[in-house]
Design a protein that fits this description.
heterodimer, A: seven-stranded mixed β-sheet, globular, B: 453 residues, 2 domains, four-stranded antiparallel β-sheet, 12 helices
């Protein structure tokens, strides 16, 4: 039932608005709204009950194991939320003077410094509001760098075929042509393809490492050399930083710019799809182009650096300073972990991923890159299972929902057929992983013995398999009163 | 080990299953030269008790002020239920709803949100939100260029929020799109239609129409919308959603209604929080729906015929279309929209109308009081919603600093953005201000102007 269907004309929450309707004396009659908007007329309790019940129709980290590859669904510590929501932080207006926010700015400054250290970059700007915006800013900086040198024939960005979809989309948004290069059978970028692709038109290479295939690009130093020698810059897609946190710094791998998804590695909540936050880090030569504002510390006082301080900045990408509340949550998380805790993130993410890969292999699942170590994630391919039983990766994913697990990422990366990209994250216990393997094994048996059960899954969720085709053909995007 | 549950026994058993001797072995594919020497600049970990104490101290340093700044972020009362429900783990810690059957809570909520926003803006459809108001405007500009096909120019009045204009330029510049500024009337603070006449001979993809504009002034939106559409340009409304509870919505502007409506969703239940996270909204006419960026939720049925909700029109998006997507945008601002939806459900149409009307009434009352001081005067004579530009008899910076020592934030200094206005600030009063607050501000301003401190 929709909230609108609970609505009754004239029902109101008297404690949530002025008791007498205020007069509107200053608005010309032709600008005054005549028909009220279609908002629900429900009691406070109706609303609370409705949205509480809706929440219970979601899978979440707080309720389920969520091994969604490339999304780093780790536990979101509650302290991060409550400390970011202290009343003074919530009440602070973004345009209030810096002197009224020294406590807040201290957190932002320290977070900037910690992220610099973790990534090995020379500068960090906290402003990007999501991974895709971090990418946009990163590529815009690469463009500004080439233009500042009069090196304008550089019109191409190289992207491996295993990359996240945002990579090519971002390059196009920045006015670049995308050159896709292939992956070899071991899961590494095809070095010959890279050598053939670089040249005087190369503006840069966008790389995720460990890649979305769940393996570390062994040739990254060589790749860096090839791209740099051609005059291009290297962009690090930080979606998979969890795998190497404290172990390897992207700056040491030769990257010139990186975005860091705080909503992955630094455990800020995904919130059903945002808000994210994706600070960008840059090497020395891109420092002047960083987006503003950036926090500076001067004689023990903090202030924002703006366009006046950084005239070559690519500018602003948000109305204020980015997602301050998300940054506060990440700050609390990094202080809880400390240096030693960060090392452990990568170690236990790797331990859980390699253990789960080993156990699933023993349970009869085919691993896409069996000769490689898993990073923080790995790929299972159901190509053979599909040929034998007709069961697809999507069927298995939906059947997992019945067993109380969120499904892994399916059909990404696109180059592995019938793939499941599995990322357990470091916060899960061995028992949870074992129980997951047991459920996977059951589904494997069902695939052979009761394939219809698997094909028609899910059976126990609030709705069963939904008709996507109908949704797109008979668009129903807003509710209308019957 | 914070947030890591493994016992020593677990570690040994897991390594044995993998066939590795140590955790370090798991990193043996990484060239040894790349392994870092450690995180020397990162301080050691803290307990929850210690970090709580540190954060409480820092919050204390920042303190609380009586705030009269608006300028794109507005202080409104937020019902307690909004964030108590929004931060339930099932909303807070879930992912983008790719697995629809496991995400019906978020998906239904987003469908309800789309319905509320489409109705509030008077448009046919809404997406599931953008990052913030400024980036939503930039995406609307890109959308207009895609829809128009021949022109790559956008007209943006100087009365649009100056930072929004910067953000639009920063985002569209890389696609070779020009942003052309339209001057405003020095008396009314509005964008007069005749200011557009100098552009009449050129081809434009869109005209941006703010309501209220950055000065708090209400524009002649009907005339501006008609001007744009008569020249084959899209009319892009950038609006305050709170104001729409009492103002004619974009869908009813001019003879045909605006084509796209965007704006900052923060006034709908999102705390000020130093600037984010907020959310941007975007609604449009049905004909433009396939040009819209971002997540869109549709209602459909499951295999038993039961209604349910899914992400739809995904063929526009980066994870399917890659380099041919309408935008690189991947997420919406799900959690913020959760809060806004609950906020709108709790206030309802009449509650929201009263809150908006109270903002308006408080702003007029404040302006009247402030103007009793010699040299304090409204700069523009156009009608306002809940903020206005006010001139001062002493340098703005000095006045605002003196007010600040009295725990009062008097407004936004406009020196940097509109130096041509002379000594001026932008002042806002929302429903959160009592008549005692307005009196308090007036008295303090009088003392500051009289004594200079």
């Amino acid at each position: 039932m929709l909230i609108f269907e609970h609505s009754r004309p004239g029902r109101r929450n008297y404690s949530q608005s002025p008791s007498t309707p205020p007069e509107m004396t200053g608005i010309p009659a032709n600008l005054v709204r005549k028909v009220p908007p279609l908002l629900p007329e429900v009691s406070e309790m109706d609303a609370v009950r409705h949205y509480t019940l809706l929440s219970q129709k979601n899978f979440s980290i707080d309720t389920q194991f969520y091994p969604l590859g490339s999304c780093t669904m780790k536990y979101n510590p509650r302290a991060c939320n409550s400390l970011a929501m202290l009343p003074q932080f919530l009440a602070r207006h973004p345009r209030s003077p810096e002197s009224t926010g020294q406590g807040f700015l201290a957190c932002m400054y320290e977070l900037q410094e910690i992220l610099k250290e973790v990534t090995g970059m020379a500068g960090v700007s906290l402003t990007p509001m999501a991974g895709a915006q971090g990418e946009l800013i990163g590529i815009a900086m690469i463009k500004a760098y080439h233009e500042s040198r009069g090196d304008s024939p550089r019109t191409e960005i190289i992207v491996p075929d295993a990359a996240h979809g945002t990579n090519p989309a971002t390059a196009v948004m920045c006015g670049y042509k995308v050159v896709e290069i292939a992956t070899d059978k071991e899961g590494d970028v095809d070095m010959e393809a890279l050598k053939a692709a670089v040249g005087p038109r190369t503006a840069g290479l966008m790389l995720t490492n460990p890649s979305t295939l769940g393996v570390f690009e062994k040739n990254v130093a060589e790749m860096s050399k090839i791209v740099h020698q051609a005059g291009g810059l290297l962009y690090y897609d930080g979606a998979n930083l969890n795998a190497i946190l404290g172990k390897v710094k992207p700056g040491d791998m030769g990257f010139d710019v990186i975005h860091i998804n705080l909503h992955k590695t630094f455990s800020t909540p995904h919130g059903g799809g945002g808000p994210g936050s994706a600070p960008v880090g840059v090497a020395e030569r891109l420092l002047p182009f960083m987006p503003v504002p950036i926090v500076a510390a001067e004689q023990g006082k903090y202030r924002w650096l703006t366009e006046k301080d950084m005239p070559k900045s690519i500018g602003r990408l948000s109305a204020h300073m980015g997602n301050a509340g998300v940054l506060l949550r990440a700050y609390v998380y990094v202080r809880l972990l400390g240096a030693e805790g960060m090392h452990r993130v990568a170690e236990f993410a790797a331990l859980n991923a390699n253990y789960l890969m080993a156990e699933l292999s023993k349970a009869g699942f085919e691993i896409a890159y069996p000769s490689r170590r898993a990073s923080h994630e790995f790929i299972v391919t159901l190509k053979d299972l599909k040929e034998k039983t007709g069961i697809t990766a999507m069927n298995l994913a939906k059947r997992l929902l019945d067993k109380g697990y969120h499904a892994p990422t399916t059909y990404f990366p696109l180059l592995v057929p019938e793939c499941l990209l599995i990322e357990p994250a470091e916060t899960e216990s061995r028992e949870t992983l074992d129980a997951f393997v047991a459920s996977m094994k059951e589904i494997l048996e069902e695939a052979h013995n009761q394939p219809e059960l698997v094909k028609n899954a899910p059976h126990t969720t609030p709705v069963r398999k939904l008709d996507d085709v109908k949704a797109a053909r008979e668009l129903d995007l807003v509710w209308k009163q019957a | 080990m914070p947030f890591i549950p493994h016992t020593d026994e677990d570690i040994q058993a897991m390594l044995a299953s993998i066939g590795a001797n140590s955790i370090d072995d798991l990193f043996d594919e990484i060239p040894p030269a790349l392994i870092s020497a450690g995180l020397k600049q990162v301080p050691p970990g803290m307990s929850e008790m210690d970090i709580t104490r540190l954060m409480l101290e820092r919050a204390e340093v920042d303190g609380r002020y009586l705030n009269f700044i608006g300028a794109g972020a507005y202080e409104h009362h937020i019902p307690a239920a909004v964030w108590q429900i929004t931060t339930r783990g099932e909303f807070y810690s879930s992912y983008t709803p790719y697995q629809a059957e496991a995400s019906q809570g978020t998906l239904q909520l987003l469908y309800e949100y789309q319905t509320m926003m489409a109705s509030l803006t008077g448009m046919d459809v809404s997406n599931a939100s953008m990052y913030d108001g400024a980036s939503a405007l930039a995406e609307a500009a890109l959308m207009a260029v895609r829809a128009h096909k021949s022109s790559r120019r956008i007209l943006v009045p100087a009365t649009v929020h100056p930072v929004y204009r910067s953000v639009v330029r920063a985002i569209v510049r890389n696609q070779g799109i020009d942003v052309i500024e339209v001057p405003y009337c020095k008396q009314s603070g509005q964008t007069p239609v005749d200011a557009l006449d100098e552009f009449a001979k050129d081809d434009f993809a869109a005209l941006v129409i703010p309501q209220p504009n950055f000065f708090g002034v209400l524009e002649d939106v009907d005339a501006l919308t008609d001007w744009a559409q008569s020249r084959n340009a899209l009319a892009i409304a950038v609006v305050n959603p709170m104001a729409l509870a009492i103002l004619v919505p974009p869908g009813e502007w001019g003879t045909k209604g605006a084509d796209v409506a965007v704006g900052e969703g923060q006034p709908l239940g999102i705390p000020l929080s130093s600037g984010g996270p907020y959310f941007g909204f975007m609604a449009c006419k049905q004909a433009l729906v396939r040009q819209m960026p971002g997540r869109i939720i549709g209602r459909t049925t499951d295999q038993d015929g039961k209604p349910g909700f899914v992400l739809t029109l995904q063929a526009r998006e980066q994870h399917i279309r890659r380099s041919k997507a309408t935008s690189n945008i991947c997420t919406n601002q799900g959690l913020m929209v959760t809060a806004a939806t609950i906020y709108m459900a709790l206030t309802g149409p009449e509650g929201l109308r009263r809150i908006a009307a109270q903002c308006h009434a408080n702003a007029l009352a404040l302006l009247q009081k402030l103007e009793t001081h010699e040299g304090v005067k409204r700069v523009f004579n156009g009608p306002v919603f809940h903020e206005a530009v006010v001139s001062l008899p002493a340098p703005t910076e000095d006045v605002l600093n003196a007010l600040k020592t009295r725990r009062l934030l008097g407004g936004l200094n406009l020196d940097d953005y509109y130096p041509e206005l002379g000594i001026a600030m932008l002042v806002c009063a929302t429903e959160t201000k009592t008549s005692a607050d307005l009196e308090n501000y007036t008295e303090h301003l009088g003392t500051v102007l009289a004594t200079g401190k």
